[in-house]
Amino acid sequence: MAHIIVVGNEKGGAGKSTVSMHVATALARMGHRIGVMDLDLRQKSLGRYIENRTDFMEAEGLQLPTPIYVELPSMDPQQADDAELDRLFSEAVAALEPVSDFILIDCPGSHTRLAQLAHSLADTLVTPLNDSFIDFDLLARIDSDGEKIIGPSVYSEMVWAARQRRATAGLTPLDWVVLRNRVGAQNMNNKQKMESAVDRLSKRIGFRTSPGFSERVIFRELFPRGLTLLDLRDIGGGSLSISNLSARQELRELIKTLNLPGVTPDF
Question: What is the CATH topology of the domain spanning 3-258?
């Protein structure tokens, strides 16, 4: 069976689609069969990322390692029938399963039926988290000083419920990895408080932590062409900047931290 990676966070703007595309493309470059789904049926940021990649390759006459994408119909998920959503999701997973070593599912930045289904199937859950206490509130409620954790959030409770369902079904435990994403160079006091709070919470509700991507202009420039950091040498022909090399190292460390079965980063 394919190993299922779910990229989930019920708050928008955390970089889920950027993380999803880079992880998926990295796995494809390492020779793994990787299928992807975008469960944000309105925005479809990951779907548009892959569409941009396909258009760019066609225009430039290039062949770049690219994940297999199964598109779900565009609709308002709040208006859709649960039974219909269940059917669409099951059919998409079934289509990818025979042709994929890994299936990566990018979830919307909100609580939906499809997101619940994806979390229940996840072998590895990746939660990008911006380096702020506004985003930390996604995981847990904290006191005004940022020191005391009052209790888990509704998202953490959803993950706990998904873990319970996996345990009941006799499946392997869910591996939850929280990425501290878009960490800036400023406000060291806030960074230290965030690091301490995330570390305490990881022990309390059971997730691993990993550095994500720093805030870089390059990510905004790559999206319109559907490219990732690992494509730059293929299209540029020259040496990479120090910033781009550092970003590649961040991606390498992320892939190593995920500890996916049979995956050793070789880029």
Answer: Rossmann fold (3.40.50)
